[in-house]
Model the fold of this input.
Amino acid sequence: MADTDNSDAARTAPRDTVVLQIATRKGAWLFHSDRDRASWQADGPHFLGHIIHELVLDPRDGRTLLAAASTGHLGPTIFRSTDFGQSWQEAGKPPAFAPEAGGTGRAVDHTFCLTPCHDNEPGAWYAGTSPQGLFRSDDGGATWAPFSCINDDPRYRAWMGTAQDGTPDGPKLHSILVDPGNPAHLYCGMSGGGVHETTDGGRTFAPLIQGLGVVPGFDREDPTFHDPHALAMCPSNPDRIYQQNHCGIYRLDRPGDRWVHIGESMPKAVGDIGFPIVAHPRDQDTAWVVPMDGTDVWPRTSPGGRPAVYRTRDGGESWQRQDGGLPREQAWWTVKRQGMCADALDPVGLYFGTTSGELWMSRDEGESWACIARHLPEIYAVRAGQPAPGPLGP
Amino acid sequence: MNVRIPTPLHSYTGTGQVQARGDTLAAVLADLDHQFPGIRFRIVDEQNRTRRHMRLFVNQRAVFDLSHPLQDSDEVAIVQALSGG
Done:
């Protein structure tokens, strides 16, 4: 069991504090602030030199942190902390596919996303992996087991394609949405492999891809050719889901099963390709995206070197550019699919981390932006949470 | 037998050289995992394949077969290719 110790003087979390969970290519950081969010205290690096794909504070207890870790060479694992990173315990059984005869089966390259299960399932977590796999822990992240038919059913495996069909850093199951009204009702997004829904606790999944675009010339009916980049369920209405897709921005209103291409109303010069998408915590009509350059060779930079967030306040009928405080030129970074989030305060705080290692935030729902930190490693994931009141330590 | 441990795995062992038992490489890795839980999965994946960039040497010769027989006098080295940026 590999434990690390990052003990600092004990700190205390008052009510209404915010802690950002920053996962990077070279380690993890926590950034603490009060509800004003005007100043931030950095705590890190944790796991310096390790690739941290996501760091997540359990919203159900406000204390448990899980980190999805690997290095460039070592196999993947999960670390858990209940004292805000002063000590970490490694999972005794990290996510791993079932062994196959002859050693020809798939192996988890890394855990990409960590998602708390339903509020009524304390200590239970889902993990999405690269290559595409879905796993569950029922003991707070200590042990993990394959979950549902997705990992091994030949039909789903066919939809996932091969490693060569995947994104540059590997094909992945990147989004897991849990219906707050029904623990057995989940959505997942695979890049590639499409969006899928289960209503029976993962025993079966059905594709949910109607209305989504695919690269011209390919069959829209085949999930293999679908490439959702990120899914976001509206906290204020779990029946509304936003999606940033390889082919644009979409919205789905259940029980409907056809996605609406809401990115068509984005400025043509900017386009509607990107990776992250964030829903407002209290307004189902408000969401944010960070467009990137998806032309010709897909530079994956801000369009024209002028980064901006775009916001809709009418469910995607229209979009407004929000670039106050962001660089006006020669800023060629972008934001990865897990690199943007919102807090739950009023007004909503928005946060994103860049491929160039900058951490930005807005205290006014995107109207203006300020840089919290520079010179971090490439940022993979940014999450915001509220720690439980009390000492930030044992 | 002596087993040399690369620095990225010192968080498990606390040192660069440990003792382990086993009559095959697989058995030695199992013994290491018993002593230092979690270390084997960082070296070998769930399909029993040595992970990319991880190499196992016996008496300074690269060995790729985990069923390779060992004697107590052998020296095993776990080596990690530190490549990339």
The longest helix of chain B spans residues 25-35. Chain B has a mean pLDDT of 94. The domain at 2-80 of chain B is CATH 3.10.20.30 (Ubiquitin-like (UB roll)).
